[in-house]
Amino acid sequence: MGIAQWEPLPRYRLCDAAVDRIRQMIDSGQLKPGDRLPPERDLAERLGVARSSIREALRILEGMGLIEVRPGAGIFAREPSEQALREAWANWLRRQREQVMDLLEAREALELRAATRAAERISLEELEQLASLVAQMESYVVSGDVSGIVRCDRAFHDTLCRASRNQFIATLSATLYDALDEARTSVFTVLPQVRSALAEEHRAILEALRQRDIPALERAITYHMESFRKDIRKAVEISQERGVENG
User: Fold this and answer.
1) Among 139, 134, 137, which Cα is nearest to 149's?
2) CA of 71: how far to CAs of 53, 75, 225, in Å?
3) Could you please report the per-residue DSSP string of 19-55?
4) CA 244/CA 237 separation, integer angstroms
5) 0.70 cut: is pTM over it?
6) Quick check: 204 and 197 in contact, CB under 8 A?
7) CB 153 within 8 A of CB 111
8) Which are the contacts of 197, defined by CB distance < 8 A and separation ≥ 6?
């Protein structure tokens, strides 16, 4: 049985927070397929929420295919199918859409500034790192490895922001990316067709950095951010359509 770390939840959106916490534990491997979750009452106590919130969270997770409730036996983590994963991430994105859009707006403003500084200050070694990350991302696109794509995406933008040589920009950017990790995973899972375009957009940013072409760099980043906004809207639409169908 996996070693699960149960910590009290922040006191907002408690049902959604419970869903997110348990799903994260399944995604990270803290809860493995077949592991038994604590009983409803214990879950409520460990996560610091009411049993009604836990009950609703378990209903949502069961609908996502992430847990199985066996009468008389308990609650067990499941190995979700690809379709279940897509639906789970679509539902997450639908619930978090407004927060994600706000974070993305802040990220765009910060990264545009970071990129103009990076174009002046980036080293050849950092350019090589970015080129390697783009190549890795392209290989993960071919293999369909979403977690690999997300890791490369994150590392690419972290490297770019560090190249600005402004520690506050780099720190703020890393904080924003922490908050957006799940949004990227949800979009790339729900919309597999956007993965190739994502790699192309990062290559365009890289080429503009290589040329130290600030106008081209700003265009590439703005296009990249707007593409992600459109992808989020599309993923939310799919989630809503499925919700109507399932209703």
Assistant:
1) 137
2) 20, 8, 46
3) HHHHHHHHHHTSS-TTPEEPPHHHHHHHHTS-HHHHH
4) 11
5) no
6) no
7) no
8) 227
* Higher local confidence (pLDDT), 69 or 241: 69
- How high is the pLDDT of residue 17? 78
In this predicted model, what pLDDT tens digit does every residue of 104-117 receive, in sequence order?
888 889 999 999 99
Q: Which of 222, 202, 204 is nearest to 213 (CA)?
A: 204
Distance CA 209, CA 167 (A): 19
How would you label 37-64 residue by residue, b for 16+ Cβ within 10 Å and e otherwise?
A: bbebeebbebbbbeeebbebbbebbeeb
What tokens does 145 get?
């490895």
Question: Would you say the C-alpha torsion 126, 132, 137, 138 has a positive or negative sign?
Answer: positive
Tokens of 144: 């369909």
CB within 8 Å of 229: residues ≥ 6 apart: 101, 104
Of the listed ranges 38-52, 65-79, 155-169, the least confidently predicted one is: 65-79
The helix/strand/coil state of 74 is strand
* 78: confidence class by pLDDT, cuts 50, 70, 90: confident
